[in-house]
Design goal:
alpha+beta; about 20% helix; single chain; 5 helices
Length: about 250
């Protein structure tokens, strides 16, 4: 089959899945978040209802400045009040949806448990991605949620589908936590190979699915016909029937 014809068929099969304004220097994703123990929300379904998150890719020489102090176990702790301190006690990443089987996934689930040293607090999180040690780009801001001391039931999770603008690579994830009663970041954590013990291999959906649509075959009896031959045969049949109908009766 000629490449041009194959591209046309692939285009018909895929349809127009991404917006026309998607450019190479634009990052497009879709995210949804919830409390981990909230079974009333199905993240897979919820993510499809979200509006597209569209951001310009940062310049290559930009870096993310996260001024911070470190606790004895390496956790980042920042606080503007004397009676409350925050830390991300635990965080994890699950890789989802590797359509072409190359090891790079186009969807991720990030879960994290934020603890506060005293009483409770209302917080929200900002999530960032960095490819191969490059600049950070924000891809999601969560809703407000409450945390209670070191209670594990207030853990939060965010599922994200990367649609376009994320080349295949090894990515790091940055979680920043903000409190309504504090100024600035109260704690943060980078999820990378050193934290997780494994790589975060990602690519966007447009690259993940681009290699799985091959020539379609229809089997019949002992042989097989490609889609283009089936279309040609159909056109010949239609033309033949039209010619018969136009033939004048004797």
């Amino acid at each position: 089959m000629q490449p041009g014809i194959r591209l046309i068929i692939i285009g018909l099969l895929l349809g127009s899945s991404l917006p026309a304004y998607a450019q190479d220097d634009t990052l497009i994703s879709r995210s949804a978040g919830k409390l981990v123990e909230d079974d009333s929300i199905e993240l897979t379904t919820e993510v499809k209802k979200q509006d597209l998150v569209i951001v310009q890719a940062p310049e290559a020489d930009q870096t993310r400045d996260t001024t911070s102090t470190q606790s004895s176990d390496g956790q980042t702790i920042i606080s503007n009040r004397d009676d409350q301190y925050f830390l991300i006690y635990d965080a994890d990443v699950s890789l989802l949806s590797d359509l072409d089987g190359d090891g790079y996934h186009h969807a991720i689930n990030v879960s994290f448990d934020v603890d506060v040293s005293y009483d409770s607090a209302t917080v929200y999180a900002k999530l960032y991605l960095s490819r191969d040690g490059g600049p950070w780009s924000q891809y999601h801001t969560t809703d407000l949620f409450n945390i209670y001391g070191d209670n594990f039931s207030d853990a939060y999770e965010v599922t994200t589908e990367l649609l376009e603008g994320y080349p295949p690579g090894y990515y790091d994830i940055l979680i920043e936590i903000f409190s309504l009663n504090h100024v600035g970041i109260v704690t943060s954590q980078v999820l990378d190979y050193y934290y997780l013990g494994r790589d975060i291999m990602l690519e966007d959906l447009s690259r993940d699915e681009s290699y799985i649509y091959e020539e379609v075959y229809y089997s019949h009896g002992g042989g097989s016909f490609s889609l283009i031959w089936l279309l040609l045969i159909l056109q010949v049949v239609i033309a033949a029937r039209g010619a018969v109908m136009l033939t004048p009766e004797k």
